[in-house]
Design goal:
The complex is a heterodimer. Chain A has eight helices and 16 strands. Chain A is α/β, with parallel strands linked by helices. In chain A, strand 6 and strand 7 form a beta hairpin. Chain A is globular, with a radius of gyration of 20 Å. Helices cover about 25% and strands about 30% of the residues of chain B. In chain B, a hairpin with a 2-residue loop joins strand 7 and strand 8 (about 150-160). The longest helix of chain B is centred in the first third of the chain and has 15 residues, at about 35-50. Chain B is globular and about 65 Å long. The chains are: A alpha/beta, B alpha/beta. Strand 11 of chain A pairs antiparallel with strand 9 of chain B.
């Protein structure tokens, strides 16, 4: 019984979603190995080896893994999968991209986005935008799993020193090619890892008004998010989107501003510990999930709030 | 160029579903059904490629019960040329669906498969990637822009940190994200015309594909309820509550 966790990283540093996934793997009773595949990512392998509970790191370093193209990564994972009873990856856009490909190559089902481990073959996962929680049992001998990172506390990093095994595995499928990436640069915490998130919706009216959120975000050390409506309207880029098909967040404090609270948005934030809603429409569904609701015009409430926190 | 668009019949996205009282499944009695929103975007993208002269034929396909013909007709009304229903009364998992689709791809030899990134019922986000794997095709998931350039597709993908652009060899599988396009409404004449378009029905048994489930659902329960909150009167009161009651800011 050994689980293989696929590390999420950017070739420079390990992403905390890896530690969340190791945490899920630790509920499966067995050794945990981590696969670090990338290009010039030695430091990531070393970081992974320090994660609590990890017994071995498989480290594969080659140019064709640099951009995590699904075709190459999936072939690699399949090739190293023999000794593992389960393979887990975080349900990030990377994990969601390559893991079903791995599952199909192995002719097994994938269990997507698990929120709890009930036993070695039984898991809980949200369906219908989180309106239902399904408890599912897999009959496959090898489990391919993606993990809802907000549902598992990250394991600690820095204390362990697992063995690092370097593998020479070259897999260039030669059918896809990376062209470019436009990644948002921000000094704020990552949306999915932030303790506090403040999100704006259609009520923000335009992208410039998101500066009203920034002042509060600066004071609270918060990440800034958005509803689908705000992203579709072009106020902010797609990587801000919180919801069923965007990012899933569960911070200590989630402040929803000018967001009506469609099912699809609630699916991405309703596991937050404390939810605040600010909306001038007192009938907005967001108030049904909010711990504290403020019926107010956001253009007066936000500057006042910024001055008082 | 021939485009295959696999679609799915799902509960309408406005419906808030609930588990059955005995937790044996999801209560789908008398709920409105529709084409999965991401599949609708995929159909629209295929139609735009045809309108732009890049595609010559669009085939919509679904795997499901007889009533899934309604969603195929929707796809035909939006501009697909013909449709295929692979009929089964089983609830087929993504792996099984992708095996059925593989059989259809081998029969139809499309140059491009465009489909939704996930269905809003099971939220699995698997079928496109699995089909690509089974065919040994490249995949471009979560697409927000799709351009055909000769024997390749150049696709911009929505990823966690922003946008990524890749080039994939055709044939390939592309899965649509929300911002790939805004689907049109089917006009009444097109809805009428769709009734005359060919819709082929294939029995899933005739494809010789293994549809046996690998996953059993033991129960479906409601999510943890949030306790009712309060409406505060002012920003002052809100800040006071967050500091002293919730203790989430200092």
């Amino acid at each position: 019984m050994t689980a293989l966790v696929i590390a999420e990283h950017d070739n420079n540093e390990l992403k905390v979603s890896t530690q969340n996934t190791i945490s899920a793997a630790s509920k499966l009773d067995g050794d945990i190995h981590v696969l670090v595949a990338g290009s010039e990512c030695n430091s990531v392998a070393e970081e992974a080896a320090t994660c609590e509970g990890v017994t071995k790191v498989l480290y594969v370093d080659s140019k064709e893994y640099e951009n995590f193209l699904a075709e190459n990564i999936a072939n690699l994972i399949k090739n190293v999968s023999d000794d593992y009873s389960s393979i887990l990856a975080p349900a990030t856009t990377n994990g969601k991209n390559y893991m079903p490909r791995v599952a199909a190559l192995l002719d097994v089902a994938q269990i997507s986005d698990i929120s709890s481990v009930e036993s070695e073959d039984t898991f809980q996962r949200p369906i219908y935008a989180g309106n239902c929680i399904a408890t599912v049992q897999s009959s496959d001998s090898k489990k391919v799993i993606t993990v809802r990172t907000t549902a598992f506390d990250a394991v600690a990093k820095g204390s362990n020193s697992a063995e690092i095994l370097k593998l020479e595995e070259v897999n260039d499928a030669g059918i896809s090619e990376f062209i470019k990436e436009e990644l948002a640069k921000s000094d704020r915490p990552e949306l999915t890892a932030a303790e506090v998130v403040i999100s704006g919706g259609r009520g923000m009216q335009n992208g410039d008004n998101f500066t009203l959120l920034e002042g509060i975000a600066d004071k609270l050390g918060a990440a800034i998010g958005a509803s689908r409506a705000a992203v579709d309207s072009g106020f902010v880029p797609n990587d801000y989107q919180v919801g069923q098909t965007g990012k899933i967040v569960a911070p200590n404090l989630y402040i929803a501003v000018g967001i009506s609270g469609a099912i699809q948005h609630l699916a991405g934030m309703k596991d937050s510990k404390v939810i605040v809603a600010i909306n001038k429409d007192e009938d907005a569904p967001i108030f049904q999930v909010a711990d504290y609701g403020l019926v107010a015009d956001l253009f007066t409430a936000l500057p006042e709030m910024e001055s008082k926190i | 160029m021939k485009i295959l668009v696999p679609i799915k019949r799902v509960v309408d996205y406005n419906v808030k579903v609930r588990p059955k009282a005995d937790e044996s499944g999801v209560d789908l009695n008398n709920v409105k059904m529709a084409i999965n929103p991401f599949c609708e975007i995929a159909v629209e993208e295929a139609v735009r490629l045809k309108e732009a002269g890049s595609a010559t034929e669009i085939i919509a396909v679904t795997v499901g019960a007889e009533n899934a013909q309604e969603q195929l007709r929707t796809a035909l009304a939006l501009g697909a040329d013909r449709a295929i229903l692979v009929e089964t009364d089983l609830e087929v998992e993504p792996l099984g669906i992708s095996k059925v689709l593989k059989a259809i791809v081998e029969k139809e030899s499309p140059n491009l498969i465009v489909m939704g990134k996930q269905a809003i019922d099971g939220d699995n986000n698997q079928t496109g990637q699995m089909l690509a794997a089974l065919m040994n095709y490249p995949q471009a998931t979560f697409a927000s822009e799709l351009k055909i350039e000769g024997e390749k597709a150049v696709v911009t993908r929505e990823v966690d940190g922003g946008l990524q652009t890749i080039s994939i060899n055709l044939p390939a599988v592309v899965t649509s994200d929300l911002r790939l396009n805004e689907p049109r409404y089917a006009s009444l004449p097109n809805i009428m015309k769709a009734k005359q378009k060919p819709l082929e029905i294939i029995k899933s048994d005739d494809l010789g594909v293994d549809l046996n489930p690998r996953i059993s659902t033991l129960k479906v329960s409601p999510p943890p309820e949030r306790e009712a909150g309060i409406i505060v009167e002012s920003v002052d009161q809100l800040v006071e509550k967050l500091k002293n009651e919730a203790k989430v800011i200092s």
